[in-house]
Design goal:
Layout: E1 3-7, H1 15-24, E2 32-36, H2 40-56, E3 62-66, H3 69-73, E4 78-81, H4 88-100, H5 113-137, E5 142-145, H6 150-160, E6 164-167, H7 172-182, H8 184-187, H9 202-218, E7 219-226, E8 229-237, H10 245-254, H11 261-270, E9 273-274, H12 278-281, H13 295-298, H14 306-326, H15 341-350, E10 354-362, E11 375-383, E12 386-389, H16 397-419, H17 422-431, H18 438-451
Parallel strand pairs: 1-2, 1-4, 2-3, 4-5, 5-6
Antiparallel strand pairs: 7-8, 8-9, 10-11, 11-12
Length: 461
């Protein structure tokens, strides 16, 4: 019996989609799904949902739930982690407001910039404690990580623990959506005109997903780089294998210049198409924070709407809770979007060959110019022997340099937190493309450490 532990099972974004796809998996019939969350209310709701669907779908899974992880982890085969220090949205907003006080406007502040450092830092001690439990209780398990910042978290687990870790992210879907929009007329793709932005606004989600689904059916993208910082190396017709890059490039050049303007400029200058969309891309570029030119206005880089997104998640959970209580309709759950965990688990557990287009794993020579320890996002083949990343080789020098800077910045940030080293933390911030002043970096670092003292006692011992 395959044992799968879901840490942070109460996450709406990843916990719910992971649960639904695991329950629907035929190869995993008879498996045990252990739900773990320190939020007792969310855990009870998710457990109720799992038991209801397991019965209604005749899924043949064994469901258990735990508010503490150790019992759940014993002899686990797979661990799906979507943990976040809470309250996520409020803490993210504080990270943004902290730098605002110093006159530094972060482009987004989630995965890059001082906000990316703080975001990762708050999760380090908890993740190391989880890893120690995994090493002791489930040493052969594979951990599938969804927690951001992805390449920082995966670097932590791969560099400082013995836990086999792979990271998954769905951002490649935005690449498919943008290619589908550009080639919509030629490939008779519907809804292209309604897809107006990749920004994290609920108004964009349905159309983006609709375009991505059609794009995935018609095209095959090969992309590589770092998480939220990948670049399209190839785009082919999925049916014929024809190289579509020249036609995509020509169609994109004729498209509305107001659609993803930062992506457009970077594509023009560096020659490869950046996959993530403007709001994620902007976090890793050195030209997005100038207070005189205000590039965020020129490129229409809106901040995350913390209050709205938090309210939407609350509403979604209330709706799911009502459905679990009433058991009136299964419609909402019938066709879940897979984040990739179930496919990897089936492949690794049953030696089912799989090609997955984006995994986050240690580089180990896959992309030239990056250290072996760097967590890169590349396509991979998966089977019972493990995950084998595709060798990419050399990328354009300018892009490689951007990747090198972000990789070293993120690694130093994690090293600093693990060691409790203010010196390394300052080096990390000074390598960050958002920061351009030593005294400013020192002041922001002091404030980050004070604001997050409860999560980072190692800096105050």
């Amino acid at each position: 019996m395959t044992k799968i532990v879901c840490l942070g099972a109460g996450s709406f974004s990843f916990g719910l989609s992971t649960l639904l796809t695991l329950l629907q998996s035929k190869p995993l019939q008879g498996s045990e799904i252990c739900l773990v969350d320190i939020d007792q209310q969310a855990l009870e709701m998710m457990t109720g949902l799992a038991n209801w669907l397991n019965e209604a779908w005749d899924s043949h899974k064994v469901i258990s739930s735990y508010s503490q992880r150790k019992e759940a982890l014993k002899n686990a085969d797979f661990i799906v982690s979507a943990i976040e220090t809470q309250p996520r949205d409020a803490l993210w907003r504080k990270d943004q407001e902290l730098t605002d006080r110093f006159g530094l406007r972060q482009p987004y502040g989630e995965n890059g910039g001082p906000g990316g450092f703080a975001h990762a830092a708050r999760n380090v001690n908890t993740l190391l404690e989880i890893a120690a439990d995994v090493e002791a209780l489930a040493p052969r398990a594979t951990l599938i990580n969804f927690t951001n910042p992805m390449h920082r978290v995966c670097y932590l687990l791969n560099e400082y623990t013995n836990v086999k870790t792979v990271g998954l992210c769905h951002q490649l879907a935005m690449g498919y959506a943008m290619v589908a929009k550009a080639l919509a007329q030629e490939y008779k793709i519907e809804g292209a005109e309604e897809f107006l932005s990749t920004h994290a606004d609920p108004a964009n989600h349905a159309q983006g997903a609709f375009l991505a689904e059609q794009g995935l059916e018609k095209f095959k993208i090969t992309a590589a780089g770092l998480n939220h910082f990948t670049w399209m190396l190839q785009v082919q017709d999925r049916a014929t294998g024809e190289d579509l890059y020249p036609r995509f490039r020509a169609a994109w050049a004729k498209a509305d210049p107001a659609f993803e303007p930062l992506t457009r400029r970077v594509f023009d200058i560096f020659g490869l198409f950046p996959i993530p969309g403007d709001e994620h891309l902007c976090e890793y570029l050195p030209w997005m924070c100038n207070p005189q030119t205000k590039p965020w206005e020129r490129f229409d880089l809106s901040l995350y709407n913390w209050e709205l997104m938090s309210a939407i998640r609350d509403y979604q959970w209330e709706h799911v809770t009502d459905l679990v209580r009433s058991r009136k309709s299964l419609d909402m759950f019938e066709d879940p979007h897979s984040e990739g965990a179930v496919e990897l688990i089936e492949s690794l557990a049953f030696n089912q060959p799989l090609y997955w287009e984006a995994v986050n794993i240690p580089n180990q020579g896959l992309i030239s110019g990056l250290s072996d320890q760097t967590i890169v996002e590349v396509p991979a083949t998966v089977n019972g022997d493990g995950i084998q990343g595709q060798v990419i080789g050399e990328m354009p020098k300018g892009i490689t340099n951007l990747l090198q800077r972000e990789a070293l910045c993120s690694q130093l940030g994690i090293d600093a937190v693990v060691q409790g080293s203010r010196e390394l933390a300052l080096q990390s911030l000074l390598l960050d493309p958002v920061v351009n002043d030593i005294e400013l970096a020192e002041s922001i670092l002091d404030e980050i450490l004070l604001e997050n003292k409860a999560y980072l006692p190692q800096f105050f011992d």
